[in-house]
Amino acid sequence: MIAKARTIIKNIFGYENFRPLQEDVIKNILEKNDTLVIMPTGGGKSLCYQIPALIFNGLTIVISPLISLMKDQVEQLNELGVNAVFLNSSLSYEKYQENVSLIVQKKVKLLYLAPETLFKQKTLGLLSALKIDSLTIDEAHCISEWGHDFRPEYRQLAQIRERFPSAVCVALTATATQRVRKDIKEILGFSTSNSFVASFDRTNLFLEIKTKVNPLEQTIEHIKKFPDNSGIIYCFSRKQVDGLSNNLKEYGFSVKPYHAGLTETERRENQELFIRDDVQIIVATIAFGMGINKPNVRFVIHYDLPKNIEGYYQEIGRAGRDGLQAHCLLLFSYGDLQKVKYFIKQKEESEQLIANIHLNALVGFVESDACRRIPLLNYFGEDYSKTNCGICDNCISGEKQLVDITIPAQKFLSCVKRTDEIFGISHIIDVLRGSKSQKIAKFNHQDLSTYGIGKDFSKNQWFHMARQFIQKGLMEQDLKFGSLKLKEKTYDVFKGKELVFGTLQDEHKEYVQKEEIDLKYDKKLFDILRKERKELADTSNVPPYVIFPDKTLIDISTHFPQSRESLLKMHGIGNEKLRKYGDIFLDIICKYCKESQIEELPKITSKKLVKQIAPSMTRKYVIISEEYNSGASIRELMEKYNIKSDTVINHLFEYFTENGTIRRDGLLESSNLNSQQQSMVFKSFDKLGTDLLKPIFSDLNEEISYGELKLLLLYYNTN
Q1: Does the fold of domain 620-717 match that of domain 403-502?
Q2: pLDDT, position 148
Q3: pLDDT tens digits for 554-575?
Q4: Would you list the DSSP string of 160-183?
């Protein structure tokens, strides 16, 4: 049966190969083994159950939480010639009955339902007379109360399984921690569950976090980098959505709001305008986007702090689903953190602990000085081995300079002690900065020796340092009440036996924007094809990406196919799409190529395609490293490209990681360490190895910067 699956993926979906894990998952489902699938957004989860559905004799039921998700999936399947329908309240009576009739006549392969529709007696009665081969649960994290989007009705799905004992159960989600995965399997009764967990790393997403200074100005500046491209901006409240949407409209942007305060009609219309490329930007609360499969979202902005990492990951996952580069910006302020904490306190007491655990993990991610992907992927139980991903703000800005913050640490920790270790970070900061608040007066904390001794740092800078004190194990925070407790090693800091090194938050720091990577395709042809696609989509009343995604148009604009056989080799073009649109697009391509005197560039293998449509401009780290290997010194490269030494070293380190060849002479000369310090580093390499730098950094009392460690590691590992 897996051979049949390989035929389907090419002939119907138009893909040359399966993505990682897809074939294994499909094989497992076809063998009727209950299957848990954890794949990142855009990783190809849908194909994992859609292909078996086309092979099974009976019906596949897909449980989906949102009407928009069902509509989107069904539209795309119908365009591919696959018989799929949905049943929900958005359908007219006539259309609902028409779909029921198709189901009864066994003319449907996939039926999409919301849980509440499935639980209706008339629905269960309809399905009881049919052969159900698969019960597929999308967004399965909704089952677990530890999931970020828990829905109690999802728990009843375990009972539904008993009605269809011969159906294989498939649970899929993009966001699930180890705890959530365990919950899903237990609740659904997966006795012999097979779990397939793909990497959570979305390598095409640039992750950036900026201090929120002037959010409207920062947002406008960011949007301008993506002219005529789609983007989503997430806000905390309906009021902020409306305000920001109106502000952006005044600046001339194509934008619509989306939140629960709008009527259902307004929400549906605004969403449709966005997915059909009639509106460039949606400003929304987190209510927007679940299940939207618009592949060409080029940026996502979090105007406010998300509530947890799962929500953040799912929301940025709506960018770059076509595999092309997209940008994810989060604007962070400690004021937003307090806002989220306030809403957590309004929850039931039993829910507050979970919410605080989630929030603390998010803040740890935001404040990390390391590669953004390390804490993000670690949260989902994935060990990220790289120290530099090359596609997040921390990695492209070079190592941050560690400074001695022992005295601020002594002040803060002493204040925690003098207030009896029963207050949270905000109150301690108020004491240090000499606040005249009622709470200070209530406890007579204006009389403490630590009152007013921290005015030299802003509130945000104190927050930033306080989080570091927790991360360094100098104090711990009660997850429920937020009170701070000192740890044993704190007393060595008080006595001056242990120094504290960390970073001071730069209130107005701007990260260097990574250079835009061009794609080698004919942009003029791409625009002509995009215009034709839009007209076809409007005529068929579907979003443009349902006709063809941008990736298909880029592939065409790279290879200039001028026959039906060549067109069939393009990404996402199967037999049905060729039948429907082949002649229309071939007329445009052939006419353009004739006028421009362009010959077809044969597409030989799928492997070569990936190289063609992936970002093809030579990465900067390759250029710099090859110049270094050709004899240029680190100093010369710094001057030529106007970059810091740490940045040059990071480029060399990344090149070494991928290619393993860096010229050895010239490395030690660029080190600022004396021979004794260098010897200490080499001894630490001998003792601990060179796979990870963090143990080396700790072994050397955090006194040697990562930049120096990387430089000496290059020397150590190079012949």
Answers
A1: yes
A2: 55
A3: 999 999 999 999 999 999 999 9
A4: HHHH-TTSEEEEEES---HHHHHH
Instruction: Note the helical H segments in 306-424.
Output: 309-316, 334-345, 349-367, 373-379, 393-396, 406-418
Q: Which residue has the tokens 């601990």?
A: 688
The backbone torsions φ and ψ at residue 688, rounded to the nearest 5 degrees and listed phi first, read -110, -10
Per DSSP bridges, beta strands 501-502 and 403-404 are antiparallel
The topology under which CATH files domain 403-502 is Arc Repressor Mutant, subunit A (1.10.10)
Q: What is the pLDDT of residue 398?
A: 64
Please state the rounded mean pLDDT for residues 172-181: 83
Domain ranges of the chain: 2-197, 205-396, 403-502, 523-613, 620-717
Q: Per-residue pLDDT for 95 more than 60?
A: yes
Amino acid 604: pLDDT: 59
Tens digits of per-residue pLDDT, 29-54? 999 999 999 988 777 889 999 999 99
Tell me which architecture the domain covering 620-717 has in CATH: Orthogonal Bundle (1.10)
Q: Which two structure tokens, joined as six digits, stand for 27?
A: 């094989």
Measure the CA–CA gap between 375 and 395, rounded to whole angstroms: 13
* Token pair listed for 512: 């260097």
Residue located via tokens 């034709």: 532
Cα–Cα distance measured from residue 460 to residue 235, given in angstroms and rounded to the nearest whole number? 21
CA–CA separation, 583 and 611 (whole Å): 27
CATH entry 3.40.50.300 includes domain 2-197: yes
Structure-block tokens of residue 558: 């790279």
With residue 581 as reference, give the H or E element that holds it.
helix 575-596
Measure the CA–CA gap between 611 and 606, rounded to whole angstroms.
Answer: 9
Other C-beta atoms within 10 Å of 121: how many?
A: 7
Residues 6 or more apart from 294 whose CB is under 8 A from it?
A: 230, 274, 275, 318, 321, 543, 545
Look at the domain 523-613 and name its fold: DNA polymerase; domain 1 (1.10.150)
Residue appearing with tokens 């074939």: 23
Give the orientation angle of helix 634-641 with respect to helix 645-659, to 10 degrees: 110
Homologous superfamily (CATH) for 205-396:
P-loop containing nucleotide triphosphate hydrolases (3.40.50.300)
The Cα 275–Cα 250 span in angstroms is 22
> In whole angstroms, how large is the CA radius of gyration of the chain?
28
Which residue has 């299957």 as its token pair?
A: 35
Sheet harboring 59-63: ordered strands across?
A: 84-87, 110-113, 59-63, 132-137, 168-173, 35-38, 194-197
CB atoms within 10 A of CB 22: 23
